[in-house]
Amino acid sequence: IKDLVSPYLSSDYKHLQKNIAYHLEYTLPQTTRNLNLFGTYLATSYTVRDRLLQLSHDTQKYYTEKKVKTACYISIEYLMGRFLQNAVLNLNLEEEYGEALAGLGYGLEDIYDQEQDPALGNGGLGRLAACFLDTLATHNYPAWGYGLRYNYGLFKQSVDVEGDQVEKTDVWLQFPYPFMIENHFIRIPIGFYGSIETYVDQKTKGTRFKWHPSEYVIAQANDILIPGYGTDNTNTLRLWSCRPIQELDFKKFSLGDFKGASEKRLNAENITNVLYPNDNEMAGKELRFKQQYFLVAATLQDIIRRLKEQKRTIYELPDFAAVQLNDTHPTLAIPELLRVLLDEEMLTWDEAWDITQRTFSYTNHTILPEALERWPVKLISHLLPRHMQLIEAINWKFLENFSENNKESGKLRKKLSLIENSRDTLVRMAWLAIVGSHKVNGVSDIHTNILKDKVFKDFHKIYPKKFINVTNGVTPRRWLHACNPKLSELITATLNSNEWIYDLTHLSKLREHADNEEFQLKWAAIKLFNKKKLQKYVKRELKIDIGYKDVVYDIQIKRIHEYKRQLMNIIGSISYYSDLLKMDPKKRKEMPKRVSFIAGKAAPGYFVAKKIIKLINCVSKVINTDPEIGDVFKVIYLPNYSVTLAELLIPATDVSEHISTPGTEASGTSNMKFVLNGGLILGTLDGANLEIMKNSGEENVFAFGITKEKVDQVKQNNIEKGAYNLMDEKMKNAINLIENGTFGNIENYQGLIEELKGVDRYILGHDFAPYMEAMDRVMQTYQKPQKWWKMSILGCAGSGWLSSDRTIKEYAENIWEIKPCPLPKIE
Ligand code: 26V
């Protein structure tokens, strides 16, 4: 049969054209006689999908034959970005598709531009998952991604005339999304609510339990195929969507329970309707909890089904799949697996617990206390009674075991207990994830140290070997090769090979060119080209005219959050503006020019973050329209930040800001992307900034501020003396401008100002002067092109280590114990 289909997939451009025409005529409600851009994009995408389907079938067959161990990454978010360009590049068909489409009268870029950007994630955590999938396929690791197919992704953001964020529903499925394939054969019933039956096991005479859910929904599989760069291996990202129970093929399941199951509530409510838009703050909504259980219950059934299809026993599960919990959101997988092993597979507790621990590992992505998930026992008992019972059993056994080996006080037991007795009784999900996993990891050196020494200190004492660091990384395919084709070409030409695309350590060879004037000029010319592209975008979308030659493009792009200190950035801009106004006009005109860009969404319920956006927009309006300032300084807020927008911004950046309070940003990953694209970093001693300094050289980063060890002391001082009394004069002056109404009604900003003057939790006041001084260094250095471009090149040359390929190798070797399994090349 393969002989029947493979000629269809030949890749010369004439053939591709025929394939595109075929889909236009027979897949779409369209014909080749009335071509349009969107239709051609769809048809093109279907031809890519055809190729991926075939590769994916070959891949799955090969993995099964080889009986390889697989990594299963469970994440409630995936921030994939557009698919088509990435797939075409990974399949190495860019030239062929370019020619094929040119023949039809279209440019490849315009076709790419038709695609929506699936925003099934909030920020760093979801984007990291997407980078990991690219690496896993590229390096031929047997792996699955599991997640949710939300009907509505992260809201679309715009800004109204008052400068406020406006949210609109992201209806991304209103048009077909050609890269997601509904798999009709994979439909899995998921239960909720109900009761627990207790009975005596005839064989062992022991007590057994069985959960009888009272309501069911179906998890429907939707597959996105993930191509690797320059390999045939093609993995699967399986996203579950929720369907009503009536659509289940009842014959396939043994049905006792479903018959009586009520169809009332859960059928009316679609569990996978919408992505929760808060990052870093636990909302505590019942529907969110259902999403979490729905994800893990479907995923585990799917994994166990695949295990059994291979005629392997449940005891082999830990050798069949390594399951990674991306933050605590999928932690219910632990009691769910335990339930399946105990109640359905009839294992003993010791057997079941051993399998569970060997199967799971957990990654922590944040230490902000408000983000650490804790769910009410009441809610869990109601929704998942058997799981609550199991969590209590896990807790009891863990505490007993621990007390046996350790005659510690009740105080410590309280701290270690998976169940917290505060005003409400709550399950600490991170504690459950730690106890149920064999490895727990942080995402940068500093972050892991904080986990060990502070957040999970007591657990670290009990299980010192369980805690390891795996510093994040980013895929160089999307974040250099695809988004910055000119730089990619220059690097390939300079290194005389494109090996760096899958082994980024090769970039170190750029070091020998860092001082070379000719090379520097080429490097700088590419930056200028990318800046021009951004300048055009700003003109088209925002109707603002900015320069790009001899202008520093300074950017801060990330979710808006107090700890990320966008507020310090904008107060810095106010202060700089005020200094400029005080200058002699002649001198002002000669000042080095800068455009300060900020982009990022605020969680709709995060009042303070929304006020920060408003302030940025109001400041921007005043500065950009002040004739005294002209083109010396501009502040630009770019609405609706997305992966696609990042792909435009990052290559165009001269300097990017990563200025979180030390100890708060677990890692950061955009910092890595900027360095990769020759952008310099203005940053604090936090997260991955520190490791970038180590690898690219301290002298190539504009670092400022205190170490995390000193933060507590500063905070304490703020509390004792009042932050305002300790505040830098220039910052006081800037705040004064806000208060006197220069940027609109002060009432809007009262909350922001009060916090800064009072406690200033994120110590903006303390760090303001060094921040301004560092920005000054940036501007001074930019006036010395040879120095600047040398820093830029050396930064990039040291970034080989920041590839997610390195990250995944560490996960594979130190946590998952999986090996690459490349498909044999077919001649
Ligand atoms: C947390 C929560 C808390 C409960 C409510 C909903 C919700 C949604 C998302 C999150 C995840 C926030 C954590 C996160 O995105 N952390 C980021 O992870 C990046 C990848 O490791 C890392 O680079 C960033 O520093 C870190 O902020």
From TrEMBL:
- Biological classification of the source: Eukaryota, Metamonada, Anaeramoebidae, Anaeramoeba
Q: What role does it play?
A: Allosteric enzyme that catalyzes the rate-limiting step in glycogen catabolism, the phosphorolytic cleavage of glycogen to produce glucose-1-phosphate, and plays a central role in maintaining cellular and organismal glucose homeostasis.
Q: Which family does it belong to?
A: Belongs to the glycogen phosphorylase family.
Please name the source species: Anaeramoeba flamelloides
SUPFAM superfamilies to which the protein is assigned, alphabetical: UDP-Glycosyltransferase/glycogen phosphorylase
Identification of the protein by name:
Alpha-1,4 glucan phosphorylase
- Give its E.C. classification number: 2.4.1.1
Return the broad EC class. Answer: transferase
Keywords in UniProt for this one? Carbohydrate metabolism, Coiled coil, Glycosyltransferase, Pyridoxal phosphate, Transferase
| Essential cofactor(s) | pyridoxal 5'-phosphate
> What domain of life is recorded for the organism?
Eukaryota
- Which CDD domains does the record match to this protein? GT35_Glycogen_Phosphorylase
The record's InterPro entries line, in alphabetical order, gives: Glycg_phsphrylas, Glyco_trans_35, Pyridoxal_P_attach_site
PANTHER family cross-referenced by the UniProt entry: GLYCOGEN PHOSPHORYLASE, GLYCOGEN PHOSPHORYLASE, LIVER FORM
Tell me what reaction this enzyme catalyses. Answer: [(1->4)-alpha-D-glucosyl](n) + phosphate = [(1->4)-alpha-D-glucosyl](n-1) + alpha-D-glucose 1-phosphate
